[in-house]
Amino acid sequence: MRYHSGVDEAPLQANFMRTILFICTGNTCRSPLAEGIARSLLKDRSDEVFVASAGVAAMEGSPTSVETLATLASHGIEYEGRSNILTPDMIRNASHVLCMTESHAKVARAMVEGEPRVQSRIQVLDPDRDLLDPIGQGQAVYDALADQLLGLLPDRLDTLLKEEVE
Prior knowledge:
Helices cover 42% and strands 13% of the residues. The protein is an alpha/beta fold. The protein has a 4-stranded parallel sheet, sandwiched between helices. The two termini are 20 Å apart.
């Protein structure tokens, strides 16, 4: 399994380490934004939670969008990373897989077809609606997406981290 450069993957192998994996399409906008915000929210728990992201149609190694980086920076969040294409092993090694849309969840579930325990870890981040792709829509749309994520993630992460891991 390979994640953003500079990330130590050894903790992923430890049984006590939980992994939260965010999924979008290209892994340059939504999922890195969610990853950065989640890491910031969980910074005091970094010894027990690993946060990563990937894309169902990512081009491996693409840079994070300038707008995503600017939005994160405006919230005091430093982020370094390049896109990763989602693999079945990433899904299998994650405690929780949070998708930006229902279509991302369907793709992820199909990647681990026949593995119901693994499929049960795959959820849509916002059960009420898809989080739309901001690509090409200007900085204000990225900032609005960050506001959505900041409204969703604290409670969602708290709930997930209270659950038992299979």
